[in-house]
Amino acid sequence: MDGQIRQAVTRRDQRNRLRLFHRIRLLLAIAVPGWCLATIILPRGLRDGMNASMGPGADTTAFTSLCLLVVAVGLLSVTLRRPLGNLWFGVAVALTVCLSESLLIFGTPDYLPVIANHINDMVARLTGVSTQGRMGADTGVVLMALLLSAFLYRVEKRWSFLAALVANVILSNSFIGMAIGAVTYGGHMALTTVLALAPLAVLSLLNHLEISWMRSLLRNSRASTMAWLGIVLGWVVPWMAALTVVLWPTDRPFSSTLDALIISILSWSMVLAFVRGALKSDQAERALQREILVMSRKMATDNLTGLLNRHGMVEQLNERFAAFRRRGRNCMVVLMDLDRFKALNDTFGHDAGDCVLEGVGHMLKESLRLGDKAGRWGGEEFMVLCEFDAPTELDQAADRLRAAVAQVPPPVSVKTGALSPPVTASCGFSVFLAEDESWLAAINRADAALGRAKGAGRNCAAKGLEVVHLIQNAA
Hints:
Elements: H1 2-41, H2 44-51, H3 62-79, H4 86-104, H5 114-127, H6 137-152, H7 157-180, H8 191-206, H9 212-217, H10 222-247, H11 257-299, H12 310-327, E1 331-338, H13 341-348, H14 350-367, E2 373-378, E3 381-387, H15 393-406, E4 425-431, H16 440-455, E5 461-463, H17 465-474
């Protein structure tokens, strides 16, 4: 039972983490389109001040801002589970063609496609804000990957996730270059572009939270902790190695695109290797937990009746009594004994007796309310635990259980063909009291009440004296 409680707490923690990530995703999806639009209309002075640290001429062109805005709208639609319209698809295809053109000759300084130049001129006329600079290959690849991620999400989530991963890999190249002062792709991204691309790249990954291994990262488990540790190490180690290369005296400066690609591929390879190993361990751990849970259920289940056995009922009694002591949750304990069951076994055989026990188990399960538990306490004796709000419910619950047992069809003798007497049961019930030191006290009172029911002629229910006082006080 303690294991089941721990699993319930773990599932609740995982649900809370998922809710947190979903809220972050929704916040990003709503905020990022506004920022992408702002990159078009920011005043020149503010724009130059933000991008000054990235080198002379660094700027977010109007064409780049338009691409960012289209990507943001696409990812917002994915986040809100809204279909992407035909207009979005048309614009996305046109922008992808322009991006492909720019990537073919990205090495040419200050190069932008013809359409992109027209867009820049049009924005300058409409807003009075002119933009300068060029689109680097890293910016173009990231934008194309994010467009593909939004487009493929409805078609094939695995390819959509791969496109999002590519966007994050290429973007990490630029971050590495900025962090260690290496000049790759002919220059650094503009800060305004970085501030828009980074949340878009994160949002593209968060849109795939339904993937099983991403959910595994959010579990409160040792494997999940190791996976996050691997992610941190995968990022830190290559970065520190690259910084060492820059600071170490060498004949060749660290300034090529190939250097950044090697570091980024190494970084992401380490991250994926750690995550893959941790998730395999997580899968093995979860499989072991499922086997343990199945075995524990088998150990707590009576094979003949399908109800809980004595071991399972003891666990339920411990749990219910603890809930009664902590939160005051009232619980009724019912002991039921089948009338004249020994005579039935002797007359009609043990097979007939087993058939009756199986039928009683089935009918009791059918009559239980949500939260009630029933089990075979021993031999032909059964126990039912029922929560209640008012003492007047107790007699009704006992009568309902006896009526369920009475619906069990009587067995027929194999030898003589004679029909056995109707199946009936005597009941004794009690409740947990504040002065009880354990649930054994309620069991003893219910057993004494069961003895009174047997003495009163069987096929009836008797209540403990404390139940009589409860009903009188309630009246």
